[in-house]
Amino acid sequence: MKAQFKHSYDQDINIFDDKSQLIKYGVLLLLLLMAPWLLSNYYISELSAILIWSISGLGLMLLTGHTGQVSLGHAAFMAIGAFSHMALMARGWNFFPALIACALITGVIGAIIARPILRTSGIYLAIATLALSIIVEDIAIVAEPITGGISGTFASPINLFGYTIDRYITPKAFYYLCLALVVLVTLGYINLLRSGTGRSFLAIRDSEVSARALGVNVPQAKTLAFSISCAITAVGGAMYGHFVQAVNYESFTVIISITILLQIVIGGLGSIHGAFFGAVVVVLLPQVIAILGDMVGQGAGSSITSIPGIDTALFALVIVIMIIYEPRGIYGIWIKIRTWFQMFPLYRKGLFRRSKTYLKTERMR
Amino acid sequence: MSLLKVDSLSIAFGGVKAVDNISFEVNEGEVFTIVGPNGAGKSTIFNLISRLYEPLSGRITFDDTDITKLPAHDIAKLGIARTFQNIELFDHSSVLQNLLIGRHSQRNTSWIQDLLFLPKVRRSEREHRLQVEKIIDFLELAPYRDKLIAGLPYGIRKVVEIARALAANPKLILLDEPASGLSVEETSEMAWWIEDMQKDLGLTILMVEHDMSLVNRVSDRVLAVAEGKFLAQGTAAEVQANPQVIEAYLGQESV
Predict the structure, then answer these.
(1) Equal CATH topology for B1-28+39-71 and B89-175
(2) Which chain regions cross the lipid bilayer (chain A) (predicted)?
(3) How many Cβ atoms are within 10 Å of B151's Cβ, its own excluded?
C-alpha cells in the first residue's frame, strides 16, 4: 500500500503530486512520441482521430462534467470551428492564427448563446442545445460564402515552418500536430481546474445556491464555462476538418453531438481521463465491431457487418451496460482496478458503494 | 454597535405572508438567535439577508451599507457567510476543495491568469491554502482533509459547512439550524464551536435553532417569531417565559 507524505502546499498545487506520477505521465508522453516508429500509418491515423475526439470531448467535459450543464449541441460548435478555420485558411491565413481566431470566434458566439440558453437547466437545456445543433446544420447550407453551401468546402493544406502537413501524405507530422494541441488543451484545462475558476465551476455543478452564497456570480461563471467549452470544441472541430479534409452540412449532424456526449459519459463524467478513454471507445469500437464481424462472418458464411446499423446498436448496448453497472464510466473502472492493486490484499467489495445522499433543497432554485 | 440592521422586512409567497414586518438589530460580537415553530419564517429571513429572496418591503443594512438591492453573489465579499438547513456542500469534492471554494469571495485572479497559471495564481493559491489550513486547525477537521463529502458522517458535514463559511473570512455568520440532526454529544460540541467562533475569532453570529439547550447556552439575545410575525425579544430566559411564545408553541389553554 502506498502512503504519500506531503510537506508543502505546492505539492497539492502542482500538476503532479509526486515524482512517480510525473514519471508515469512522462512515459506515456514518450510512448505517444515514439508511436510513429512503433505503429503503421493506418494506426497512426486512428491515433490522430482519437486525439481529435479527445479535444472535442475535453470541451464538452468542461461544460457537462465539471460545470454540470448538459449540451446536446456541441457538434454545432465543432462545425463553427471547422468552417471558420477553413474559411480563414482559404483566405490566406496561416494555420495557427486561423486556429486561434476560430477558437475566439466560437468562444464569443458561445458566450452570446450561453446567456439566454443557460437560464434553463436539465432536460430543457438539453432540448435547447439540441435545437442549436439542428439550426447550425441549416445555417451551414445557407451561409454559402463561408461554408460552401451544399457541396461544402475542402481543407487547405497546412504549411508550418516550411513543412506541408497532410493527413494522407505526412500522417506522422499530422499526428504530432494533434498531439501538441491535445497537450496544450489538457494543460490549460488542468490549470483552470486547480485554480479558482475551475472551483467555481465545480461549485455550480454541485450546489448553485451555495455557490451564490459564497460569492460566485453564477450566470457569469456559467457563460464563461460555456464559452471556454465552445472554444476547445472548435479546435477539435477544426482539426476534424483537416482529418476528413472535406466538410459540408452533413459532417456535423446531431448524431455527432450525441456521440461526443456519449463519449464523455462512457469515459467518466467529471474527469479529464474520461474524455480520453471515451475518445478511444468512440474511435475504436466501430473498428473492433467490424473486425469481430468479419471473424464471425467467415464462420457463418456471410458478413454480420452487412446488417445495417449493427455497430450503432452494439455501441448503444455498451452505453446501456455502462450506465447501469458503472455510472462513473471507464475512469471509474480504472480507479477501482488501481485501488485494488494499491490496497492488495485489503480491497473490500463495498469500497466504492456510494453513500446515501442527503436531501438537498431545491426551493431556492 | 449594531452590525446588521433589519428594518420592517416583509415577503409574501402567493398571498401567504412568510415574513411580516420584522425588525431587529444584531450587535457586533454577539450571538443572536431566532426561534419559532416550524414555518415561522426563520429560514426565509436568512434567505432574505443572503439576498436569495427579493423582499416585498423593508431594508437590510449591514455595516452601514444598504444591501437590500445587492445581488446575492456580492454578499459574501461584504462579510456575510452562511450555512444551510439541509447542508449544501459540494458532495463530489474533498473537504479541502470545499473550503477552497469558500475562499471564492477573496479571489484576486482572473480566469485568463488561471488558465495560464501565472506565478501570481500560485502565490494566491498558497495564500488560500494557508487560510484554509488555519480553519481546518481551528475546527479540528485535519483527519477529514482529503475525504470526499459524500462519504462523511452527517455531524462532520455540519462542521465542514461552518468551516466553508469561515473560509470566506466573514464578519457575520448565519447558521441555519446548526444542531438539527445532531446527537446530544454533537450538539454540545457544536455549542463549543459557536462559543469559540464568538470569543476567539470575534465573529458575530446570527442563528436559527430549535434545540433550546443550545439556544440557552450560547445566545446573548433571542428573537421569537411565529407565522412571520414578531413575538418577543430578549434573553433566552425572558423569551421562554413570555406567555405569547408559550402560546405559539403549545397553543392556548382551554378554558
Answers:
(1) yes
(2) 21-38, 44-63, 95-114, 123-143, 173-192, 224-244, 251-269, 275-292, 304-325
(3) 13
Spell out which residues of chain A touch residue B76, defining contact as CB-CB under 8 Å: 213-215
C-alpha cell at A213: 452564497
Partner-chain contact B121 A213, CB within 8 Å: no
CATH code, residues B1-28+39-71: 3.40.50.300
Is there a contact between B90 and A210 if contact means CB atoms under 8 Å apart?
Answer: yes
Q: Are A136 and A84 within 8 A, CB to CB? A: no
Cross-chain residue pair B129–A9, CB shorter than 8 Å = yes
Domains of chain B by residue range: 1-28+39-71, 89-175
Beta B57-62 vs B31-35: how paired, if at all? unpaired
Interchain proximity B76–A213, CB inside 8 Å: yes
How close is the nearest chain B Cα to the Cα of A42, in Å? 35
For B11, residues 6+ apart whose C-beta sits below 8 A from its C-beta are B17, B18, B19, B44, B48, B53, B54, B55, B56
Instruction: Name the β-bridge partners of A263.
Output: none
User: Is-contact B150 B91, C-beta < 8 A?
Assistant: yes
Could B52 and A212 be called an inter-chain contact, meaning their C-beta atoms sit closer than 8 Å?
yes
* Shortest distance, CA B75 to any CA of chain A (angstroms): 7
Judge whether B118 is closer than 8 Å to chain A, CB to CB.
no
Instruction: Spell out which residues of chain B touch residue A206, defining contact as CB-CB under 8 Å.
Output: 89-93
| Tens of each residue's pLDDT in chain A, 365 residues | 566 777 888 888 888 877 888 999 999 999 999 999 999 989 999 999 999 999 999 999 999 999 999 999 999 999 999 999 999 999 989 999 999 999 999 999 999 999 899 888 888 999 999 999 999 988 988 888 888 878 888 888 888 887 888 888 888 999 999 999 999 999 999 999 999 999 999 999 999 999 999 999 999 999 999 999 999 999 999 999 999 988 988 889 888 998 899 899 889 888 999 999 999 998 988 888 778 777 776 665 555 556 677 777 877 887 788 878 877 888 888 888 888 887 777 777 666 665 444 444 444 44
Grid look-up 485558411 returns A89
pTM: 0.90
- Residue in B50, B71, B117 closest to A191 by CB: B117
| Prediction ipTM score | 0.90
- Which residue out of B104, B146, B156, B177 would a mutagenesis test of the A interface target, given it has the greatest number of A Cβ atoms within 10 Å? B104
Task: State whether CATH 3.40.50.300 applies to domain B89-175.
Answer: yes
